[in-house]
Write a structure and sequence with these properties.
This protein is of the alpha/beta class and 673 residues long. The chain has 25 helices and 22 strands. Strands 6-7-4-3-2-5-8 form a 7-stranded mixed β-sheet.
Length: 673
């Protein structure tokens, strides 16, 4: 009978517990088919419910967990929008806090007066006095349930990510029942003690010890997957390309500027790879303006000089067009055709022979479009994940691959996310870049910023105005590019403004950017579609509203759109309403101009998941590792994974790891030939 008897790590969930078919399907949809799969669905956080603090007076700095009785609820409607208000009372003192949720119409069916409620969030002071928590996590306690105190209260309680119909409370109960019947001897490394403590810790100290052990195993598995992929890539053959030849020598000699020491070092690393006869897979990253494009162009010219075509992939049509214009200037005087292939522009292929094809990531997967390039350069690596790299490496014959990122990547993330790539760093800036002065201001300073911006336009300069969203949505506190565009047209008249965002069709985007480059458009109101690649020397002002909604590394990347000419340039970061407490974070950008320093600070503040995002990296989320704090764990896991893959690539000594890596690879490389 399901639900009785001892369970082992590999027991199917369908046999382990009495789970209704619809709920079982939800678990299976997340890849949770066995007891072990479920036990690896780790809590996203823990709440100390062994002793609830008293309701606070002044708002605390950190989120808190409170327990009280629902005294009152109220639903208020504002046209098509609504707000659900709840007053939570502390029985012992009568103190109250207010909670509110916006546009969640189902809450009155769940939350009612008289309920015993636990809430988790960060209270803040209301203008009329008292405290309020916006959209706190909550859990209704069934105090008459016999095991309520055992599972949900009087302990450090796990809060697991919800799965379809499974709330954190329901998952907590299911995991408690599963663990009660688990055979500890069936649990793989790091063992049953760590698994039990991560779900139902007996103390904060034992929880941290378990987290560390499981995080190390998590990082180890990731590094094993990346090491296996790297070995597959290195096993192929690719064209031999040397840096000898008159064409390449003349190109370097006739450059209007001298290469930096860092550029020369990186080109040496690249050409050493290209000459080996096996596929190069190298990541080139450096700060904004560090000269990655000329390094990539020199590498492509090496392939062209050897008689092979080359290709460049970009994440957006705007950036692809920018690369097209730049490479035409470099290569066409040498008699090398440059072809642009985007949805807006499908130039006919040039005659057979050495040529450069430029396009977006999607279009350049078409063999009929690209042919068989000997070298593929991928711009904006963090938008081109490990699955896409694997698909590219699976092509026959194997191309050499050079991936670039204008977003400085902390060493921690580089080791974590790009373990299948060799790493080159441009850590030196070419002379002549104009420093950009950064100003962080509260939203009340918008009118002053607008006056300054208009003065710059009157003097013949151009400007970018960047917003976090295209159109107004549920979050009214976020300013939208489309809405603000109308305002700026009036404020900046007669200077011509234009709107640019990702939903415009390809021809409209190209038309807007052509007019902006020509100086016909003076102010570009945009989303982050201008984050990379847009190079207009006359643009001297970047204004970002709701700047607190962006990561520091992304703001630094946006800042790189100005300071590209000889004129003084400014970056103005305006915080949104009620964002005063986030000004300190933004002020890091006033003091720091080095992208690597900023990226490390961003990683500390936001974590790796927020910094790049699972969808962008192509990797499953890191659930337990805390980077960069766990850098030592990561380096240890990386060394162990490389040792294991070298000594036992078939994993005969670790049969438990075979199934885990197979799961990772199914997720990562689905659809890869």
């Amino acid at each position: 009978m399901p639900g009785t008897g001892q369970l082992v790590w590999g027991s199917p969930l369908v046999e382990a517990a009495q789970i209704p078919p619809a709920k079982l399907k939800a678990l299976e949809g997340e890849g949770l088919q066995t007891v072990g799969d479920l036990l690896r669905h780790y809590p996203r956080r823990h709440e100390d419910r062994s002793k609830f603090p008293a309701f606070p007076g002044p708002p605390p700095e950190n989120p808190i967990c409170l327990r009280g009785i629902v005294a009152e609820t109220k639903m208020i409607h504002f046209g098509r929008r609504c707000q659900f208000l709840l007053t939570l009372s502390e029985p012992a003192t009568g103190a109250t806090v207010r909670c509110r949720w916006f546009n969640l119409r189902y809450l009155p069916k769940i939350l009612q007066a008289g309920q015993d409620l636990v809430i988790y969030g960060r209270p803040r002071a209301m203008k009329k006095g008292g405290l309020v928590l916006d959209h706190p996590d909550f859990e209704v306690l069934e105090t008459d349930a016999p095991d309520s105190a055992l599972i949900h209260l009087n302990r450090i309680a796990p809060i697991h990510p919800s799965i379809g119909p499974w709330s954190p409370r329901a998952l907590r109960r299911l995991l408690f029942e599963i663990l009660a019947r688990l055979d500890d001897g069936s649990v793989p490394a790091p063992g049953a003690a760590a698994i039990r403590e991560i779900h139902f810790p007996s103390s904060a100290e034992k929880l941290e010890k378990a987290r560390s052990a499981l995080a190390r195993e998590e990082l180890f598995e990731m590094q094993c997957v990346l090491a296996r992929q790297r070995a597959r890539q290195n096993a192929g053959s690719a064209p031999v390309i040397t840096r000898d030849g008159k064409l390449l020598s003349a190109f370097v000699k006739n450059m209007p500027f001298a290469l930096t020491t860092a550029q020369k070092r990186v080109l040496g690393q690249i050409f050493d790879d290209l000459a080996r006869g096996c596929p190069m897979n190298r990541l080139l990253h450096g700060d904004v303006g560090s000269g990655k494009t000329i390094v990539a162009a020199t590498a492509m010219l090496g392939a062209l000089a050897a008689g092979h075509p080359a290709a460049l992939m970009a994440p957006t049509q705007v950036l692809a067009h920018q690369h097209y214009e730049n490479l035409r200037k470099l290569f066409e005087p040498l008699g090398i055709p440059v072809v642009l292939r985007t949805a807006a522009r499908k130039e006919k292929s040039a005659a057979a022979g050495p040529r450069v094809v430029i396009g977006t990531h999607a279009l350049l997967f078409s063999p009929e479009t690209v042919g068989n390039p000997a070298l593929v350069v991928i711009d904006e690596q963090h938008k081109f994940g490990v699955r896409q790299r694997a698909k590219l490496s699976a092509q026959q014959p194997h191309p050499h691959v050079l991936v670039m990122s204008a977003t400085p990547i902390p060493r921690t993330l580089a080791l974590t996310l790009y373990g299948d790539l060799d790493l080159s760093v441009l850590d030196e800036m070419p002379p002549g870049r104009t420093p950009v002065r950064t100003l962080v201001r509260p939203h009340e300073k918008l009118s002053e910023a607008a006056d300054f911006l208009r003065k710059q336009l009157d003097e013949g300069r151009q400007a970018y105005l960047v917003y976090p969203v295209i159109e107004e949505g549920k979050r009214k506190e976020l300013k939208a590019a489309a809405t603000e565009f109308e305002k700026w047209q009036k404020l900046l008249a007669p200077h011509r403004c234009a709107l640019l965002h990702g939903r415009l069709d390809a021809e409209d985007k190209e038309s807007v950017m052509t007019a902006f480059r020509a100086g016909e458009i003076r102010a570009l109101i945009s989303t982050t579609v201008i984050e990379v690649g847009v190079d207009v020397a006359n643009a001297t002002v970047l204004l970002v509203e709701n700047a607190e909604r962006f990561g520091l590394a992304q703001l630094h990347q946006l800042r790189g759109r100005v300071g590209r000419g000889p004129e003084k340039s400014w970056c103005v970061l305006l915080a949104g309403k009620d964002a005063e407490e986030k000004l300190d974070r933004l002020q890091i950008l006033e003091k720091a101009s080095d992208g690597f320093t900023i990226a490390e600070a961003d990683l500390e503040l936001r974590g790796p998941g927020d910094l790049l995002g699972t969808d962008q990296t192509g990797l499953p989320p890191i659930r337990l590792a805390k980077l960069p704090r766990d850098l030592a764990l990561l380096e240890d896991a990386r060394a162990e994974a490389q040792r294991l893959m070298t000594e036992d690539s078939e994993l005969s000594s670790r049969p438990d790891l075979q199934s885990r890596l197979a799961l990772w690879e199914r997720r990562l490389f689905a659809g890869v030939a």
